[in-house]
Design a protein that fits this description.
This protein is of the alpha/beta class and about 350 residues long. The protein has helices at about 15-25, 35-45, 55-65, 80-85, 100-115, 130-140, 170-185, 290-305, 315-330, and strands spanning about 1-5, 25-30, 50-55, 70, 90-95, 120, 145-155, 190-200, 210-215, 220-230, 240-245, 250-255, 260-270, 270-275, 335. Helices cover about 35% and strands about 25% of the residues. Pfam families: GFO_IDH_MocA, GFO_IDH_MocA_C3.
């Protein structure tokens, strides 16, 4: 049985409590939130009567001596919370973004390495079944080498709370999911970006609700992103709408259940090459899915001697670097190199 402390009892925390209960052999011995009434409510909801409730993380860590720390707090508290967990000898799973700056992200990676502990990030949309199927189709070579990726993300959510006050809100809070998927599909690391942000007249966000970016990958592939969080009507999926172009064919995904692919066959039909539909592979045992639960399972398995989680900090920083690269470019008004 692994002992865990959970920090942050907002709406997102419910999925974490449910994942811990589903996996089993995890005893949540401490629940921390600045509003202790929220922590007490979660404890009652999940039958955790013996858990220590507090607004003081250091005190809970000292008293409970946990093996695991689950961090679901707001982004500005991320570095302090993850650092405290690693310094206390915990394996740490945190919400995204991994950190508020690349320097903080690098520091957390170094802390995890020094502590000999696993630090991973809930990049939960990497575990969407359709993303896994597309990634496997690309790896099969069915459309050849990926030459470009294009996606649209258009929604208009009224969150309230901290998101509506954030700077660079679309890039910083949401786009990392799409950027991470692009990195998975491209099988590479982004090397440069040119980005723009703007605020439509109908926006209810402080800054950065609408944006566009062109990323360059080191293998030569290009990724274009267009998005808005104040685009009412004809909304896309939360996973974006995608077109992935390869040297031998293309994949189109509506972000929901519909995936289509075509690849070049021999010969030409007049002006265009002949193409044929490509079968989309079904899920199989190798596909790691499940959203929050999928990330949770990989993390817990790693803490119990399994392979490193796919969303380990040292890997996830490559997606975070795309976010900060886009922000730096938007602020500078020019193309910038992406460094990790």
């Amino acid at each position: 049985m692994q002992r865990a402390v959970l920090v942050g009892c907002g709406a997102m925390s419910k999925a974490w409590f449910e994942a811990a209960r589903t996996i089993g052999d995890i005893d949540i011995v401490g629940i921390v939130d600045l509003a202790t009434d929220r922590a007490e409510a979660r404890a009652r909801e999940f039958g955790l009567d013996g858990a220590m409730i507090s607004d003081d993380l250091a005190a809970v860590l000292a008293k409970t001596g946990p093996d695991l720390l689950f961090d679901i707090a707001i982004p500005k508290a991320r570095h302090a919370i993850v650092s405290a967990g690693l310094d206390a000898g915990c394996h740490v799973l945190s919400e995204k973004p991994m950190a508020e700056t690349l320097d903080e992200a690098r520091d957390l990676i170094q802390r995890a390495q020094r502590a000999g502990r696993i630090h991973a990030v809930v990049q939960n949309r990497r575990y969407v079944p359709q993303i896994r199927r597309i990634a496997r189709l690309i790896r099969s070579g069915a459309i050849g080498e990926v030459t470009s990726l294009h996606c649209d993300f258009f929604l208009a959510p009224h969150f309230g709370g901290f998101r509506e006050e954030m700077r660079h809100v679309l890039f910083h809070d949401m786009a990392i999911h799409t950027f991470d998927a692009a990195r998975l599909f491209a099988g590479d690391t982004a090397s440069a970006v040119y980005a723009r942000e703007w605020e439509p007249v109908n926006s209810w966000y402080a800054q950065g609700s609408s944006a566009a970016a062109i990323f360059e990958f080191s293998n030569g592939a290009i990724f274009t992103y267009r998005g808005s969080w104040c685009a009412d009507g004809l909304r896309t999926s939360w996973e974006s709408a995608w077109r992935i172009v390869g040297s031998k064919g293309s994949i189109v995904w509506d972000g929901h259940d519909q995936i289509q692919a075509e690849a070049v066959t021999s010969g030409k039909d007049g002006l265009f090459s002949e193409v044929a539909a490509v079968e989309i592979p079904p899920l199989d045992a190798s596909d790691r899915v499940g959203g929050h639960l999928g990330v949770f399972k990989d993390f817990i398995a790693a803490t119990r001697g399994g392979p490193a989680p796919e969303t380990a900090g040292a890997e996830n920083i490559k997606s975070l670097a795309m976010v900060f690269g886009a922000i730096d470019s938007a602020e500078a008004g020019r193309r910038v190199e992406i460094t990790i």
